[in-house]
Amino acid sequence: MTKTKGIEELRQSEMMAHLLDSLEKGKDIGHYGRLVFVMVSRFFLSDDEIVAELTKDKDCDEEKARAMIMQVQDKDYNPPKRDRILEWMNQQEFPICENSENPDTCNVYRSLEFPPELFEKISSYYKHK
After folding, report:
1. Spatial separation of the C-alpha atoms in residues 68 and 39, rounded to whole Å
2. How many other C-beta atoms are found inside a 10 Å radius of the C-beta of residue 125?
3. Please, what's the b/e burial string for 84-94 (b: 16 or more CB within 10 A of its CB; e: otherwise)?
4. What phi-psi label fits residue 57: left (phi over 0), alpha (psi between -120 and 50 degrees) or beta?
5. How far apart are CA 38 and CA 128, in angstroms?
6. How would you label 44-63 residue by residue, b for 16+ Cβ within 10 Å and e otherwise?
7. Contact 58, 65 (CB under 8 A)
8. Which of 45, 51, 58, 126 has the most CB atoms at less than 10 Å from its CB?
């Protein structure tokens, strides 16, 4: 997948478009904003492409970006649900979700097309739980 294609797909989510636009402006999207960005974008961008986007954040250098990517990959984190995003957003200044009053925003599962393996993994997790 090319960067342009991956970015284009991510922009289908209002929240991810907001994060990408904020990064483009050099804004500090906060720890949880970066975490959400990695957890979602790893299904659309290469590690190097994620690093290139995250390092536009004035508070995130390449080392910090790669460490976060490694953490998310090692733990095999799924993209967070809307409730978790809102919970994390309340713990930092930067608004991860611009329009949090609308129940359809910040739900990446509604606006993005993830690979079927992700849903199989989630389903398997809940069966074991």
Report:
1. 9
2. 10
3. ebeebbeeeeb
4. beta
5. 26
6. bbeeebbbebbbebeebeee
7. no
8. 45
Encoded tokens for 80: 């967070």
Q: Which two tokens stand for residue 70?
A: 């490694």
Confidence (pLDDT) at 5: 82
Secondary structure letter of residue 104 according to DSSP: T
Q: Where are the domains of the chain?
A: 3-128
In this prediction the pTM is: 0.88
DSSP calls for 37-86: HHHHHTTTS-HHHHHHHHTTSTT--HHHHHHHHHHHHHHTPPPPPHHHHH
Tens of pLDDT, residue by residue over 60-107, are: 999 999 999 999 999 999 999 999 999 999 999 999 998 888 887 889
Contacts of residue 50, Cβ cutoff 8 Å, sequence gap at least 6: 37, 38, 41, 42, 65, 69
**CA–CA distance, 116 with 120 (Å, rounded to integer):** 6
| CB atoms closer than 10 angstroms to residue 105 | 20
